[in-house]
Amino acid sequence: MIWKKKNRNITATAFECKREHCTIRGTQYRPAGTRLPIAIVSHGFMACQDTVRQYAKKLAELGYVSYCFDFCGGSVIKGKSSGKTTEMSVLTEEKDLEAVIQYARKQPYSDAGRVVLMGCSQGGLVSALTAAKHNRVVSKLILFYPAFCIPYDARRGKMLLAEFDPKHIPDRLRCGAMKLGRCYVEDVIGMNPYRETRGFHGDVLIVHGTKDRIVDSKYVKKAYAVYVQETKDKCLHRKVELRIVKNGKHGFSRKCDRIAQGYMERFLR
Question: Are strands 138-144 and 178-181 parallel, antiparallel or unpaired?
Fold first, then answer.
């Protein structure tokens, strides 16, 4: 599929790559040109690539060869990647994202040294963790309502609709329509997300809504403060921004999304 936007011919094609025994499937949006910077967009918990497709398209309009994809076992419906929901966790999604980064950097029209990671909710936490481990590759990080709360929710035994005894984690947990495995809790219950996301030295944009009832703003504000403090401690030459969207919920409305995308566009200029 090819369409024209802002004087750019953008080609949308399906892609797939491997992570261990799993197949990751998604969509690439490629503007004309060579040595294109890369942007990879990660969806949230129980969601799929369709929920973040608008961001991948926007990034392609801005000149990036962009990717959105389904995490292995990370979708309730419409997910095209392989893998079971009971085998999915933040850490397996981190491995999925690393596989997509590796795939994108190998394409002959890509600039392997300029990678932007963008993530929403759980995909935001996954993107932040991945950026810290690939600091020399990832240049910018964009986080929409990032779920830094996940490890803290695990420790209190309530992760969205899943409730359990954190001292006796069951082998299977039911979270609404999604069945989770023990690994979903175990992989994060001892995690300090603020410590583990330190080490990324590129530009950071965080966008959060005032009416988010899933991720309390205190987690997002702390993430912002940690990035700012690290900038000062290491005398980094970068920008760290926190933008608040009035009336924004967890999963922006069309109106709030336009505002958020405006912040993203200005950040990338």
Answer: unpaired
Q: Token pair of 9, please? A: 């011919």
Give the C-alpha separation, 265 to 269, whole Å.
Answer: 7
Span 160-174, pLDDT tens digits: 999 999 999 999 999
Number of H helices, E strands in the chain: 8, 13
CA-to-CA distance for 216 and 150, rounded, in angstroms?
Answer: 11
The per-residue pLDDT for 66 is: 98
Residues 207/264, Cβ–Cβ less than 8 Å: yes
For residue 64, report the phi and psi dihedrals to the nearest 5 degrees.
-95, 145
Low-confidence ranges of the chain (pLDDT < 50): 3, 7
Which tokens sit at 64? Answer: 């990036």
Torsion of CA 189, 191, 193, 194, to 10 degrees: 130
- Residue 196 has which token pair? 């583990």
